[in-house]
Design a protein that fits this description.
Number of domains: 1
Structural class: alpha+beta
Strand order of the largest sheet: 1-10-5-4-3
Shape: globular
Largest sheet: 5 strands, antiparallel
Order of helices and strands: HHEEEEEEEEEE
Oligomer: single chain
Radius of gyration: 21 Å
Strand content: 35-45%
Number of strands: 10
Number of helices: 2
């Protein structure tokens, strides 16, 4: 009988473990955390991307480009649901700026196969809020 109790205890604990796991943040919450302490500006159609800039994908939601201390959030007009933070972004720019009519190809980081593309929307600049002195 003690082994039956032990088996039931182990089974119950295995069922409870997923319930105790921390829930994953939604894309909206991830974006909100990233933009905390920042203020949105007027959307722009194009941004200049200097060498060495970085970008971050918010799964299924947006691409955030860091240009200096400013963050530009782009919620694609099409294909946003395909965004995955494990993808490699391949951007073909026509000219010196990345614009809201450009596309970004999504390449699976592991297999190196194309996964789709997004059509960019307008870029919303986010700057750090000025603190009162």
């Amino acid at each position: 009988m003690p082994s039956l109790v032990k088996t039931l205890f182990v089974a119950a604990s295995l069922i409870a473990v997923p319930a105790l796991a921390a829930p994953r943040d939604t894309p909206e919450i991830k974006l909100q955390k990233l933009l905390e302490g920042r203020v949105a500006g007027e959307p722009v159609n194009c941004i200049s991307l200097p060498p060495g800039n970085s970008s971050q994908v918010i799964d299924g939601k947006a691409i955030v480009y860091r240009v200096g201390s400013k963050l530009y959030v782009n919620e694609p007009r099409s294909g946003a649901e395909s965004l995955n933070d494990d993808d490699v972004l391949v951007t073909k720019m026509f000219g010196s700026q990345l614009c809201s009519v450009d596309t970004v190809n999504l390449i699976d980081r592991t297999s190196r196969f194309p996964r789709g593309f997004v059509i960019l929307g307008k870029f919303v600049p986010w700057t750090k809020a000025k603190t009162a002195k």
